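Good morning N.,

You mentioned wanting to compare the apo and holo forms, so I went ahead and generated the holo version with zinc ion. This is what I fed in:
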Amino acid sequence: MTEDDGETQARRACPICGKKSAPGFGAFCSKRCADIDLGRWLKGIYRVPTNEPPADYEADENNER
Ligand SMILES: [Zn+2]
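and this is what came out, ligand included:
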């Protein structure tokens, strides 16, 4: 085993399409893929709301430092 893999490890594959990531787009190959990931992330947060509020919401706030 040699440790010559520094270069290949520096370029990670885009998590969206699997292409090489580009400098300036973080882990992504292009702004398009970055936007796709951002969209997925936002959907995870802004899920279609149900009518039931989280029961422990206030308790959580009190736990803040
Ligand atoms: Zn991509």
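The chain is about 40% helix and 0% strand.

Happy to go through it together on a call whenever suits you.

Best,
F.
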